[in-house]
Amino acid sequence: MSVVGRKSGFVAVIGAPNAGKSTLVNRLVGAKVTIVTRKVQTTRFPIRGVAMEGEAQIVLVDTPGVFAPRRRLDRAMVQAAWNGAADADVIVHLVDSAAELAVEDGSAVGADPHAVRDAQSVMEGLKVSGRMAILALNKIDGVKRDRLLALAERLFSSGVYEEVFMISAENGSGVDDLKKRLASKMQPGDWLYPEDQTADLPLRLLAAEITREKVYLRVHDEIPYAAAVETTAFTEAKGGAARIEQTIYVEREGQRAIVLGKNGQTLKWIGQHAREELCELFDRKVHLFLHVQVRENWQEMREFYSAGGLDFDV
Ligand SMILES: Nc1nc2c(ncn2[C@@H]2O[C@H](COP(=O)(O)OP(=O)(O)OP(=O)(O)O)[C@@H](O)[C@H]2O)c(=O)[nH]1
Ligand SMILES: [Mg+2]
């Protein structure tokens, strides 16, 4: 039986790569549940974060960016994003307003040409699905007000949005209003998670994601998308510490050398930053051991997909 007054539901955050979806989910939750980098295609599988607003529990689903898929991993990521939207009670389409205006101006520069950063493909997907979404224009900290309003009008005229919010996921502006609105759209029913739980990612996976974030931050320019991280052991050590062993997979020997760096300096940096964050996240001492291994075909290995809930066969 549900407790009187309680409400809950799922909100999927979808959008082009780099729109700020993970930043928004972390901001709404008030804790880091999903990793953020300035690179496109950071999020690889749907991640749930739990936010509370009064008596309402909002389960946010961070999704991989929607773009024109090419490889198997791309296809699985894009499908996971749409599945996340299909299963949710509310869809938030997050748009990087600065990038969108750059596309309008013809001044967009994309490091990866197949990762189209505009709102069009998501808008079309919404049309096909017949679902209405909340449009959230993000990164308003970097755009002029009049251009923002014109952009809102243009996107809203597509007819797939019920409302528009203008926010900055980074500095929090407008996010409280959006959160209140999402809470009001939750349905009567008991909470889906304990009140104090913010994430539901298995610890091993979360730990691997934190390390992957550091790998991305440090060597993404040299080895775009070629790295994956797996937690191979997560055990108790002396004095209440956790012992975590992880393998960083790369596709070629040369990439292994890049991840290691001169005298192992790069790997040391990655390990140090990951360890610090893991200590904070798990609120305990962490001994982290990183290995780098060449596995040419990790993107074709089934277990990488199932671990993150991705479908291998798409
Ligand atoms: N200026 C500004 N930058 C932002 C804002 N929100 C997010 N960012 C930045 O945008 C970049 C991408 O953020 P993410 O949250 O990783 O974006 P994402 O949509 O999850 O990206 P993928 O997982 O790759 O699809 C990061 O460098 C963020 O710091 C914002 O409101 N303003
Ligand atoms: Mg993301």
Helicity, as a percent range:
25-40%
How many structural domains in the coordinates? 2
Strand content: 15-25%
Instruction: Quickly give the CATH architecture of the largest domain.
Output: 3-Layer(aba) Sandwich
Mean pLDDT: 91
> What is the chain-wise order of helices and strands?
EHEEHEHHEHEHEHEEHHEH
What is the alpha-carbon Rg in Å? 20 Å
CATH names the topology of the largest domain as Rossmann fold
Offer a concise description of the structure.
The chain has 314 residues and is of the alpha/beta class. The chain has 10 helices and 10 strands. Helix 7 runs antiparallel to helix 9 (265-282).
Characterization of this structure:
This protein is of the alpha/beta class. Helix content is 37%, strand content 23%. Strands 1, 2, 3, 4, 5, 6 and 7 form a 7-stranded mixed β-sheet that branches.
List keywords for this structure.
314 residues; seven-stranded mixed sheet; Rossmann fold; 10 helices; three-stranded mixed sheet; binds magnesium ion; globular; 2 domains; binds guanosine-5'-triphosphate; GMP Synthetase, Chain A, domain 3; alpha/beta; single chain
List the helices and strands and how they pair.
Elements (H helix, E strand, L loop, with lengths): L6 E9 L5 H9 L17 E7 L2 E7 L9 H16 L2 E7 H9 L14 H10 L3 E6 L6 H12 L4 E6 L8 H10 L2 E2 L14 H17 L8 E9 L5 E9 L2 H8 L4 H18 L3 E9 L7 H6 L7
Parallel strand pairs: 1-3, 1-4, 4-5, 5-6, 9-10
Antiparallel strand pairs: 1-7, 2-3, 8-9
Helix pairs in contact: 7-9
The structure holds guanosine-5'-triphosphate and magnesium ion (MG).
